[in-house]
Design brief:
The chain has helices at about 60-70, 85-95, 100-115, 120-140, 145-160, and strands at about 5-10, 15-25, 30-40, 45-50, 55. By secondary structure, the chain is of the alpha+beta class. Strands 4-3-2-1-5 form a 5-stranded antiparallel β-sheet. The longest helix has 22 residues, at about 120-140.
Amino acid sequence: MFKIGDTVSCSGFGIGIIVDIENQDLGGRSMDFYVVGDLQNTDKIKISTTTKGKLRGLLNKSEMETIVTFLKTEGDSPIKGNNRTFYLNLLNEFKTGDLEKMARVLKSLTLKNEQRKLRVEEKKLYDRVKEQISTEMAFVYDMSPLDAKSYLEKTLMMDQQS
């Protein structure tokens, strides 16, 4: 259970802060919701406290190191498929909100970009995943978002140079 002030990762929303926990009556049923605000405090969403998999705490340094090591490691694309199923497989992995799965998406798109120019929807997904991972990386490593993005880009270049 999260509490007000906790920094969390929310699938499809990104990194946010629990700003409130509200109770609402929905059709005669009382339900609790986390109110998650984005980091710029411009947008908020509500997520049921009973929803599984939509909300998670941030990774610790050891878990983030596992992600970084995976991204540095040479290998084939962890996500396969023809053009359309490849994109749908990537999207399904991204939607989980699981950072390890997002790292698989990022690695797959990075490798695909070496073979051919990414399609528009793939490039958008690549940018979203990179932003999500670098934002969480900034929190975990206590660095600026710009430094985290630069570190992530260098990490991805290491894979390409291997």
